[in-house]
Structure formats: structure tokens, C-alpha cells
Design goal:
Elements: H1 9-28, H2 31-38, H3 43-70, H4 73-93, H5 97-114, H6 117-126, H7 128-157, H8 163-182, H9 193-196, H10 199-215, H11 217-244, H12 258-283, H13 285-288, H14 294-313, H15 317-344, H16 351-379, H17 381-392, H18 394-401
Helix pairs in contact: 1-7, 1-8, 3-4, 3-5, 3-10, 3-16, 4-5, 4-6, 4-8, 6-7, 6-16, 7-12, 7-15, 10-11, 10-16, 11-15, 11-16, 11-17, 11-18, 12-15, 14-15, 14-17, 14-18, 16-17
Length: 413
């Protein structure tokens, strides 16, 4: 059988990030409008949709991470995108509450197959030393894909709210087939068949991930930060749109429809994030690619807190938007720095598992923190938003507590 898996890993990773971001934006930009207007979901059902998604991520994050570590990073990604595509198609074609819940399970499980596997794959293929620069550059491709997907979703949404999700779901399945055909996997050494089916091998890989968290302060601290971020972000991410809808949107091009404005605002936020990423990479690349980037991460986390507090107190639409964009920019710039730093402190054998553990810590936080703050939001929307900011407050200090160590770093794969 002829193999076509000879694509350049770095270019493949860039194209993959752009495609994934495009298809994701295509599905997510108008999903909230679709849930309410087309599927007829009430506020309680909207919350249950989010909770179902997070529970699926929580329950399957570690097992699917083990698949990437024991069998194949590529296989894990292919399975993930097929499931994500199936979930998008289901909720688009069957606009009913139970079908949408089932779709969240499908796409949540699919996401856990991709979570960590892509970063572990590119780090294996090019080495941890080069991964820092690639993660930052890939973030820019991702933002470009998000911009294109947001614009396309807005245009397709004028035809039908479900159309962007249908195309996105089919595109996800096509992306899985393309990755299976072209994605090289030269530096990953799978566990021999005689060993990989044993429970002992699975538990040993999981234990090595726990050992990395115990022995390495960076891994341990990033796990705690991920948990705190989950506790704070779930309620904020669900409630910011509720507050935004309390403002009167100006009329532009003859419409003040929230669907139009949400598309425009998502596009503007992504463009601002892309510009910030490009400028920082141009004028402060040494900080973004530092071997111990505590200062820049603490600063970005502080901007996150500032954005939350400003948004909670904002009494004017444009101040609220500025606060949201500030937080979006901080999150966008943080992501590749955080990923590169974590990857440098984990060896290849358990890399995907540790990355999955970090994602699972975030899911635990979201499941635990979302309902209480959501209940608070029923009586005081501002109080719930402020509580999210207060929970986030320790994160800058946690970054600053970490100091460079002389411990030997893992060799590039």
C-alpha cells in the first residue's frame, strides 16, 4: 500500500490549526442563536448543554490521552475529528434538546481525543526546542482561520442558522481523512502489541503523568492554574452574553439584530487578538519564547482579571466590549506560551497524558464552579461576574511563585 504521509510536520501543523479553527468558528459563531431560535432551548436547557459537554470532557480526557500515548497521535486525532464532525451534524440536523445533548457527548469525547495529541505530535516530530516558536506561529494561523470561519458563518447564517454547522460537521470528517492520509508520525514509538493491551501498561503511563506532576513544580503549578481557571471561567463564559444582551445595540446596515452584532463582535475580537499576537511576536519574541516565561504569563493573567472586573462593572456597551476584548487578547497570547512551557517539562512517553490531565483539571473546575456561580447569577449577574474575577485572582501570583530550576529538561524526541 502506497503511503502519502510525507508532508512537512511544521507546515502540516499550521494548516491543521487553520482548518480546525475555521471549522470551529463556522459551527460556534451562531450556535447560541441556533439553540434559542431554531431549537427553542430555554435558559435551563442551555446550561445543561454546557454541563453535558464539560462532563464528557472530564470523563474521557485521561482515557483518550492514553490512546495517543500508547497507540498513535495521528489515530487519536483522526478518531477525534470524526466524532466532533458527527456531533456537529447531529445537532444541526435534529434541532431537539435530547439530540443536542447527545451531540455534546459526541463532540466532547471527540475533543478529548484531539486534546494534547496535536501538541504532543508536533513536539515529537520537531523536538521541544523548536516547538516554542511553532506554537506561537500556529496560534496566528488559528486566529486567521477563526476570522475566515466567523465571516463565513455570518454569511451562511443568513441562508439558514443550521447551515454553518452542517458544513462544519462534514468538514471535520473530511479533515480527519486528510490527516490520516498526509500526517507523518516518524518519531513516535508505539507500545508493542503484546504490551499495549495490558492494563499494567495503561496504568504505568498514567502513573508517569502523575509522577511528572509530583516531581516538577511547573507541571504541578500549571495543573492548579488550570483548575482555578476552570472554576472561574465557566460562569463568566456563559454569563457575558446575558449581560451584553441587556444593552441596546446600535443600528448598522439597517439592522440591530443581536445575531449580526455577535458575529461582528466575534470577528473584531479575533482581529484584535491576531494583531496583538503578531505585534508581540515581532517586538517581544524573546519573552514569548523564554524558557521560563513567568513574567509574561503573570502579566497576561492580571489583564484577564482586569477584564473580568471591568466587564462586571461596565454600564456602557463599548466599555463592556473593551473589557471582553482585553480578556480575549490575554487568553489568545497566553495559550501558545503555556503550551510550549508545559511541553518542555514532560517527556514524550507521557506527554499526551499529562496534557490531557491539565485539560481535565480545567473541566473539573468548570463542572464544579459553573452551577454555584450560575445560581448566584440568577439573583445578581454582576455578583456572579465579580466572583469569577475573584476566583481568577490567585493565578498571577502562582505564576510568579515559580522560579527557574537547574533540573535537567527532557531531551527532544
Amino acid at each position: 500500500m502506497v503511503s502519502y504521509r510525507s508532508a512537512d510536520p511544521t507546515r502540516t501543523y499550521y494548516v491543521y490549526n487553520a482548518a480546525w479553527a475555521f471549522l470551529g468558528a463556522l459551527s460556534f459563531t451562531l450556535s447560541a442563536v441556533y439553540y434559542v431560535r431554531h431549537a427553542g432551548l430555554n435558559p435551563l436547557q442551555m446550561v445543561l448543554v454546557g454541563t453535558t459537554l464539560e462532563l464528557a470532557c472530564f470523563l474521557f480526557e485521561i482515557p483518550t490521552g492514553l490512546v495517543a500515548d500508547l497507540y498513535s497521535r495521528r489515530l487519536s486525532l483522526v478518531i477525534g475529528f470524526v466524532l466532533i464532525g458527527a456531533g456537529f451534524l447531529l445537532q444541526a440536523l435534529v434541532p431537539a434538546f435530547l439530540a443536542i445533548l447527545a451531540a455534546q457527548v459526541l463532540w466532547g469525547v471527540g475533543f478529548t481525543f484531539t486534546s494534547g495529541a496535536d501538541q504532543a505530535w508536533i513536539t515529537d516530530e520537531i523536538g521541544a526546542d523548536r516547538a516554542d516558536r511553532v506554537f506561537v506561529r500556529a496560534q496566528q494561523f488559528e486566529l486567521g482561520g477563526t476570522i475566515a470561519g466567523t465571516v463565513t458563518a455570518g454569511a451562511l447564517g443568513l441562508v439558514g442558522l443550521s447551515l454553518p454547522m452542517v458544513i462544519s460537521g462534514a468538514g471535520m470528517i473530511l479533515l480527519a481523512l486528510v490527516l490520516n492520509a498526509v500526517m507523518p508520525e516518524r518519531n513516535f514509538h508505539r507500545t508493542p502489541p503484546a504490551e499495549r493491551e495490558t492494563f499494567r501498561q495503561v496504568t504505568d503511563t498514567f502513573k508517569s503523568g502523575l509522577d511528572a506532576a509530583r516531581r516538577r513544580p511547573v507541571v504541578r503549578t500549571l495543573l492548579v492554574i488550570s483548575l482555578i481557571a476552570g472554576l472561574a471561567s465557566e460562569a463568566f463564559d456563559r454569563l457575558w452574553s446575558v449581560k451584553l444582551l441587556t444593552f441596546d445595540f446600535p443600528t448598522v446596515f439597517g439592522t440591530s439584530d443581536p445575531a449580526f452584532w455577535f458575529t461582528a463582535l466575534a470577528l473584531a475580537g479575533t482581529l484584535l487578538s491576531l494583531c496583538a499576537s503578531l505585534l508581540l511576536n515581532r517586538f517581544s519574541a524573546e519573552r514569548l519564547q523564554a524558557s521560563h516565561p513567568t513574567g509574561i504569563l503573570a502579566t497576561l493573567a492580571a489583564l484577564d482579571v482586569l477584564g473580568m472586573f471591568l466587564f462586571a462593572f461596565a454600564g456602557h456597551l463599548w466599555l463592556a466590549l473593551a473589557a471582553l476584548w482585553l480578556r480575549q487578547i490575554a487568553d489568545t497570547v497566553t495559550s501558545p506560551i503555556h503550551a510550549a512551557w508545559l511541553n518542555r517539562h514532560v517527556d514524550s512517553r507521557s506527554r499526551a497524558t499529562v496534557l490531557s490531565m491539565v485539560s481535565q483539571a480545567n473541566a473539573i473546575g468548570q463542572v464544579a464552579g459553573g452551577p454555584p456561580l450560575g445560581a448566584l447569577g440568577r439573583t445578581s449577574l454582576r455578583g456572579a461576574l465579580l466572583a469569577s474575577g475573584l476566583i481568577w485572582l490567585p493565578i498571577p501570583a502562582l505564576y510568579l511563585r515559580l522560579r527557574p530550576t537547574r533540573a535537567k529538561q527532557p531531551d527532544p524526541a
